[in-house]
Amino acid sequence: QVQLVESGGGLVQPGGSLRVSCAASGSFFRLGVMGWYRQAPGKQRELVATVSTDGSRNYADAVKGRFTISRDNAKNTVYLQVNSLKPEDTAVYYCNAYITTVSGSRVYWGQGTQVTVSS
Which residues contact 4 (CB under 8 A, 6 or more apart)? Predict the structure, then answer.
């Protein structure tokens, strides 16, 4: 069974940094586009960034210049480096990935990791 497991969230002061990771495990043939989304209390889940298999990246306007998405295909892992954090970045951060298994291809989601920006 395919799983995505996030790690690295926590409490950080405004202006601080951290890195969240998401590793895919299980039996699959191909790991396609991977991405990060976030959901703040009372708000809808929103796109943060995506990275394709060729390394091309896409960012939400709110995080451009502050967040960097990357992937390590050898480790089946996607990372999100978050810098210059603001209180409005507080949210549960979810990773997702388009994965091909014997059953076909679909999007999988991780369980989420909390990032709290507060002094």
Answer: 22, 23, 24, 95, 96, 97, 108, 109, 110, 111
Residues in the chain: 119
- Residue of 1, 20, 5 whose CA lies nearest to 111: 5
pLDDT digits (tens, 9 = 90+) for 18-34: 999 999 999 999 999 99
Query: What's the DSSP call for residue 111?
Result: -
- Quote the DSSP letter at residue 13: -
* pLDDT single digits (tens) 76-112: 999 999 999 999 999 999 999 999 999 999 999 999 9
For residue 102, give every residue at least 6 positions away whose Cβ sits within 8 Å of its Cβ, in sequence order, or none: 27, 29
